[in-house]
Design goal:
alpha/beta, Rossmann fold, 2 domains, two-stranded antiparallel ribbon
C-alpha cells in the first residue's frame, strides 16, 4: 500500500531528483549513453558485445567508488581502457559530442502535466541530482528547464547525495528552509536522508510500491504532487 502520510502544509517548493524521477534513458541505460557502442565501433570494429559488457561494468565500479560525479572524459577513459581501446582526444570528443537529448532521453509520461500544474499553483521548483554539468541543457531540450529556479548538480558541487550540501544548495538558492521544501527521489535512502535533515520527502515508486514496513513515505505517480499544495 502506498504511504500517503501528509506533508507539512508549510511546504512551498519541490526539490526533484532528475534521473528516475523526471526523465529516463531510452533503452534503459544511463551510462554510457545509448550511442556509446556505435561511436566506439566506428573507431574499432573488432570489439565484441562481451567486451562492451565487461568494460561498462568496470565503469559502474568506477562510479561506485567515488563520492562525486567524475569528469565525463575520465569516466570514458576508464571504460575505453577496459575495452583495450586507446582513449584518443578524437574518440573522447566523439563520445562527448552534443546530440539531441530526445535521441537518448525521454520524460516520464506524468512529468510535464505535473510541472505545469505545480507552476500554475506557483509552487517553486529546483533540481537536486547526481549528474554532469550539462543537465540544465538536457532539460532545456526536453522542454522542462524553465520550470526550475535552481540546480544542485554533483559534478559542480563536488559531492553526491546524501551529502547535506546537495540538498542545502537547492533550498538555499530558493531562499527557503528545509521544512519548506518537499524532496522527491526514486531512492528511499536518499529521501530518508532529506527527511533527517528536516525536509519533507517522498520516494516515487512508479513500478512497485515500497513494503508496508518501510518508514519512508511514498507516491506512485508525479500527478499526486499537486495535492500537497
Amino acid at each position: 500500500m502506498t504511504k500517503r502520510s501528509s506533508a507539512s502544509r508549510s511546504v512551498r517548493a519541490v526539490l526533484f531528483d532528475s534521473g528516475g524521477v523526471l526523465m529516463r534513458p531510452i533503452g534503459g541505460r544511463w551510462n554510457p549513453r545509448a550511442d556509446f557502442e556505435e561511436t566506439v565501433l566506428a573507431h574499432d570494429l573488432s570489439i565484441t558485445n562481451d567486451r562492451f559488457t565487461a568494460a561498462i561494468a568496470a565503469g559502474d565500479r568506477f562510479f561506485a567508488a567515488l563520492s562525486s560525479t567524475p569528469d565525463y572524459d575520465d569516466y570514458h577513459r576508464v571504460v575505453l581502457r577496459n575495452l583495450g581501446v586507446e582513449p584518443t582526444p578524437q574518440l573522447l570528443a566523439d563520445l562527448s559530442r552534443e546530440v539531441p537529448a530526445d535521441r537518448v532521453l525521454e520524460l516520464y509520461p506524468d512529468v510535464m502535466q505535473t510541472l505545469e500544474e505545480l507552476s500554475r499553483r506557483q509552487v517553486r521548483m529546483a533540481v537536486v541530482s547526481d549528474a554532469w554539468p550539462d543537465l540544465p541543457r538536457l532539460h532545456a531540450t526536453l522542454g522542462i528547464h524553465h520550470f526550475f529556479e535552481a540546480y544542485a548538480i554533483s559534478a559542480e558541487l563536488g559531492c553526491n547525495k546524501p551529502d547535506p550540501r546537495m540538498y542545502h544548495h537547492a533550498s538555499t538558492a530558493l531562499g527557503l528552509t528545509p521544512a519548506q521544501c518537499l524532496f522527491i527521489d526514486d531512492d528511499p535512502d536518499l529521501v530518508q536522508a532529506a527527511i533527517d535533515l528536516g525536509y519533507a520527502g517522498r520516494v516515487i515508486c512508479r513500478d512497485s510500491p515500497l513494503p508496508d514496513v518501510s518508514p519512508v513515505p511514498s507516491i506512485t505517480a508525479m500527478t499526486e504532487l499537486p495535492e500537497f499544495f
